[in-house]
């Protein structure tokens, strides 16, 4: 009876995960989809705790009752995790989102690794079970340490990519070593727990080595990849226990995460292998091309007049906008212009912000309606009919070098064709290069005017100026 | 070779299950607008927190006199909960911001 109920609770869990993910693919149903997933997860967890039956050699051991201490520890851990997880998630600033996702992903990986560490000794000599245990533990550990490094890189504690000499060779060797070690463990099944901990440590080290040479700009891809790794680790747990909800959840995230990773790579026009092995800028093939032309300044009042008498304004927001906390001011600017009959749209490059879609989240936070956020393919043909483009805190995503300079490290990345607009106004703090460290010839375009200053400062002045017109 | 064939025969249903799940995962994500990539990654992140089910299961079977196992199990459940709760709450917060006016 109990076991049938437990299977049903897992069935419900699996279905809600699939439906939930599907619903998250549409802005209208996304929030409900997420809640549905959470409900399914709760059912699966509650079922696991309260419908538990001790299995003894395939039969149910009726006489067994779980010690109170174990229940206390489980409930204690869940209570503590809920409070800490909830508060962290509620308090985090939206600009810090990517590192938080990375952190939570690392927690899941560590959880999978710990399960492996605990289950190993119970399954000595059983090749099938041991393969699932060792694979889950190794992948979970890599995901854990990799996510922590990604977290440190995104929050700025570890700015520079660290590259050992011949790091690709070293990493490949370490990976092969860890894989060989794992296979050996499964086949010989040594009973000394020390050896298991050595493998665990090796996997942790590999996770660090894997992530450490990759630059901060590529971290979203890495997080997405590690996300699918954790999914895979969870699926191995499902194999071990023949637990269908862990299998569905894990494989779903594994395959969806892999696809998402590839989509992100496509948006940056870089193959995944290039992200992992070819670290950005490491080739040293940066363009030596001299950019000729003059930089033209524009003041706040001239910008205000120009925008006020336009028919159509397109705003290109970049991460710099979020850093300056200017999302709210830009929404105010948009509202004033709209009230004066100017059409305002936001051009969202797929990799604007720190993750694909991150910019949408940031703008949504300041109440910008999502139908004003236009994706690259849809907005590009519209630039020709645009009077003013305002680029705020974005750089590489509007750099024409991606189109016409084969030597540029970003060559081939699709960009926003802002050059086709009548006027281009670029707000920047100074003339320094963008995240990828490349000069931008757009700034030297005769149609471009530079509006120097802190984004929030300048936009606030612009709003005041517009109001007085 | 023989072992491999035997493995496939024994685990036939499991192999079907895994293959179909992979396709479901790809199908479910396909065609999602870029707008939703970040919440989707975050939501998927919460879902793999299902690994907590395994952690709870290990814990329920643990020998209460094995202190190391109790500590590891406690940590596993704690980390799994952080993944699940944090993941779902932060995704909800993100999606709560998407409004059409």
Helix fraction of chain A by DSSP (H/I, runs of at least 4): 55-70%
Structural class of chain A: alpha/beta
Order of helices and strands of chain A: HHEEHHHHHHHHHEHHEHEHEHEEH
Overall pLDDT confidence of chain A: 87
The main pleated sheet of chain A reads as: 6 strands, parallel
**C-alpha-based Rg of chain B, rounded:** 19 Å
User: Largest interface, by Cβ-Cβ below 8 angstroms: which chains and how many residues each?
Assistant: A-B, 112 and 77 residues
Termini Cα gap of chain A: 75 Å
Number of strands of chain B: 0
Characteristic key phrases:
heterodimer, A: 469 residues, alpha/beta, Rossmann fold, six-stranded parallel beta sheet, 8 strands, elongated, B: 101 residues, mainly alpha, 5 helices, 0% strand
Question: What this model shows, in words?
Answer:
The complex is a heterodimer of chains A (469) and B (101). Residues 280-287 of chain A have low confidence and may be disordered. Chain A has 17 helices and eight strands. In chain A, helix 1 runs parallel beside helix 9, helix 4 (97-119) runs antiparallel to helix 5 and helix 5 (127-154) runs parallel beside helix 7 (193-211). Chain A has two domains: 98-283, no CATH class; 300-468, Rossmann fold (3-Layer(aba) Sandwich), CATH 3.40.50. Chain A starts with a helix and ends with a helix. The radius of gyration of chain A is 26 Å and the shape is elongated. In chain A, the strands form two sheets. Chain A has a six-stranded parallel β-sheet with strand order 5-4-3-6-7-8. Chain A is of the alpha/beta class and 469 residues long. Chain B is mainly alpha-helical and 101 residues long. Chain B is 77% helix and 0% strand. Chain B has five helices and no strands. In chain B, helix 3 (37-47) runs antiparallel to helix 5 and helix 4 (51-60) packs antiparallel against helix 5 (67-96). The model of chain B has no long low-confidence stretch (mean pLDDT 88). Classes of the chains: A alpha/beta (469), B mainly alpha (101). The interface between A and B is large, with 112 and 77 residues.
């Amino acid at each position: 009876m109990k076991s049938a109920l437990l299977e049903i609770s897992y069935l419900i869990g699996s279905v809600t995960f699939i439906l939930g993910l599907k619903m998250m693919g549409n802005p209208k149903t996304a929030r409900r989809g997420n809640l549905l997933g959470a409900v399914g997860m709760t059912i699966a967890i509650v079922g696991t705790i309260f419908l538990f039956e001790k299995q003894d050699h395939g039969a149910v051991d009726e006489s067994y009752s779980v010690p109170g201490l174990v229940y206390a520890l489980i409930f204690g851990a869940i209570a503590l995790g809920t409070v800490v997880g909830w508060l962290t998630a509620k308090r985090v600033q939206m600009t810090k989102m990517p590192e938080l996702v990375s952190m939570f992903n690392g927690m899941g990986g560590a959880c999978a690794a710990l399960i492996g560490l605990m289950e190993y000794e119970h399954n000595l000599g059983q090749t099938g079970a041991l393969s699932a245990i060792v694979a889950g533990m190794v992948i979970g550990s890599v995901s854990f340490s990799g996510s922590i490094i990604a977290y440190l890189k995104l929050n700025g504690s570890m700015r520079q990519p660290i590259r050992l000499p011949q790091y690709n060779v070293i990493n490949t060797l370490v990976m092969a070593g860890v894989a060989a070690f794992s296979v050996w463990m499964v086949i010989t099944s040594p009973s000394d727990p020390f050896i298991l901990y050595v493998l665990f440590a090796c996997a942790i080290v590999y996770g660090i080595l894997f992530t450490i040479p990759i630059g901060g700009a590529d971290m979203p891809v890495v997080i997405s990849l590690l996300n699918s790794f954790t999914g895979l680790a969870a699926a191995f747990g499902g194999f071990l226990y023949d637990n269908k909800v862990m299998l569905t959840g894990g494989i779903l995230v594994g395959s969806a995460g892999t696809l998402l990773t590839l989509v992100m790579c496509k948006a940056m026009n870089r193959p995944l292998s290039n992200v992992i092995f070819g670290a950005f800028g490491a080739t040293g093939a940066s363009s030596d091309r001299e950019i000729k032309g003059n930089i033209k300044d524009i003041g706040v009042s001239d910008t205000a007049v120009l925008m006020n008498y336009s028919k159509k304004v397109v705003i290109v927001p970049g991460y710099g906008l979020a850093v300056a906390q200017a999302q709210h001011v830009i929404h105010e600017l948009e509202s004033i212009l709209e009230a004066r009959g100017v059409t305002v749209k936001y051009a969202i490059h797929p990799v604007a912000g720190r993750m694909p879609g991150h910019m949408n989240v940031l703008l949504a936070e300041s109440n910008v309606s999502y139908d004003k956020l236009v994706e690259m393919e849809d907005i590009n043909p519209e630039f020709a009919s645009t009077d003013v483009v305002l680029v705020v805190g974005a750089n590489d995503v509007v750099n024409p070098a991606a189109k016409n300079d084969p030597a540029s490290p970003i060559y081939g990345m699709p960009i926003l064709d802002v050059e086709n607009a009548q006027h281009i106004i670029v707000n920047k703090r100074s003339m320094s290069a963008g995240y990828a460290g490349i000069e931008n010839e757009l700034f030297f375009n005769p149609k471009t005017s530079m509006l120097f200053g802190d984004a929030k400062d300048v936009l606030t002045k612009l709003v005041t100026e517009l109001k007085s017109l | 070779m023989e072992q491999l064939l035997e493995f496939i025969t024994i685990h036939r249903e499991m192999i079907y299950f895994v293959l179909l799940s992979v396709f479901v995962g790809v199908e479910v994500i396909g065609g999602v607008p870029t707008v939703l990539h970040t919440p989707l990654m975050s939501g998927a992140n919460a879902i793999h927190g299902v690994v907590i089910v395994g952690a709870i299961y290990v814990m329920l079977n643990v020998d209460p006199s094995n202190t190391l196992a109790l500590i590891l199990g406690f940590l596993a459940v704690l980390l799994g909960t952080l993944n699940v709760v944090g993941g779902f709450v932060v995704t909800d917060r993100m999606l709560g911001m998407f409004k059409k006016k």
